[in-house]
Specification:
- The protein has about 350 residues and is mostly helical.
- The protein has one domain.
- About 70% of the residues lie in helices and about 0% in strands.
- It contains 18 helices and two strands.
- The chain has a two-stranded antiparallel sheet.
- Strand 1 and strand 2 form a beta hairpin.
- Helix 5 packs across helix 13.
- The chain is globular, with a radius of gyration of 22 Å.
- The relative contact order is 0.17.
Length: about 350
């Protein structure tokens, strides 16, 4: 019975994103069935790659899906959101490019070293946010507003106003496709980050600790947990996610532009967490829901572009749809629907009662 309740609860949390995804799929089937067609083509580098709207959606949402995973952890533990992820991503990209430029030749070793250093730099800035939230008890959105405002200026100090070009087959393989593999590389990055977090949760009690701190910090402390450390760990994991997303963003374009790298991704990441059925007030979370939320946002964007909606109007249409999804997933609506379902559902009659009758 306990296992059935757990499964039912997990499916219930994913109900809203699954319904939203189903509506988008049905809408596009009636609008234009070719929206789901997948083909093969030869790209500019002479490699055979997969093409089609579905491939574009899964590929383009990679950075958002990765950051949404990290955002989910911070939200669950702290009951608030980090709105500086895109701006700090610009710092990560600036450090990555600066290290590569300093080493001269772009090799696998130099790329790995540059990524490790940019990851460490990102973690330092995320620990700054985490300290304000966990130690000084500042509301997360206010605490992270500092780096949201100034992080791109820090990225400018690192690399100047230039947009350095990274012309290398290694960079192209990271941001686009590996020769001989038709699937875009960023998709594998999402799988890798998701697998890493899955293994962490499987072999440690971190998931339980995060949820406990998010639900009741005082009770968690009385049970021997360290809420400050758990929150800092969440910010560290978010920093790693931001570094990976920044790496993909830089390698995808083959250049760094600190003004546009991961711009406005903060709001989409928060929406992905909400659409995924996770409470923005902290507590229980489901990473698969946030990943699904990221793909729903990207599918909605791609659908609007396919309908020839002007780019300037896309955000307005997205806002309307997202408001509907978020309101539908709100506790008030959920409680109303649950009560209605209980009234409409027939009450099961025990077997013994039928025989007695």
């Amino acid at each position: 019975m306990k296992q059935n309740r757990k499964t039912s609860s997990g499916l219930g949390q994913l109900l809203i994103p699954l319904v939203a995804l189903g509506i988008l799929i049905v809408f596009n089937i009636f609008r234009d069935i070719s929206f789901f067609s997948i083909g093969m083509r030869v790209n500019n580098a002479g490699n055979i790659v997969l093409t089609g709207n579905l491939i574009s959606i899964i590929d383009s949402a990679s950075e958002l899906a990765i950051i949404a995973m990290g955002m989910t952890l911070v939200t669950a533990a702290c009951g608030g959101q980090d709105i500086s992820v895109g701006a700090v991503g610009a710092i990560a990209g600036a450090v990555f490019v600066k290290v590569l430029q300093g080493m001269g030749a772009i090799t696998i070793g130099s790329v790995i070293l540059a990524f490790v250093l940019c990851c460490l730099a990102t973690i330092v800035f995320k620990l700054f946010n985490g300290t304000l939230v966990a130690v000084f008890k500042i509301q997360p959105m206010i605490a992270t507003l500092i780096l949201y405002s100034c992080a791109r200026s820090i990225a400018y100090w690192i690399n100047g106003d230039a947009t350095p070009q990274l012309k290398s087959s290694i960079i192209s393989s990271i941001g686009k496709t590996i020769p001989g593999i038709p699937v875009p590389t960023p998709i594998f990055a999402v799988i890798l980050v998701g697998l890493l977090l899955f293994l962490i949760f499987k072999f440690t009690s971190l998931r339980l600790y995060i949820q406990s701190v998010g639900i009741n910090q005082g009770a968690a402390r009385l049970n021997g947990m360290n809420p400050i450390m758990i929150k800092l760990i969440c910010f560290i994991l978010l920093g790693v996610c931001v570094s990976v997303a920044s790496l993909i963003g830089v390698c995808r374009l083959g250049q760094l532009n600190h003004k546009t790298l991961l711009v406005d991704i903060e709001m989409d990441a928060i929406l992905a967490v909400a659409i995924g059925g996770n409470s923005l007030g902290g507590g229980r979370f489901k990473l698969s829901g946030s990943i699904l939320g990221a793909y729903i946002i990207q599918m909605l964007t791609t659908t609007l572009y396919a309908m020839n909606v002007a780019p300037v109007n896309v955000k307005a249409y997205k806002a309307i749809v997202i408001i509907i999804i978020v309101v539908a997933g709100s506790p008030v609506v959920k409680n109303k629907l649950t009560a209605l379902w209980k009234r409409l559902r027939p009450v099961p009659v025990p077997e013994g009662a039928e025989k007695e009758g």
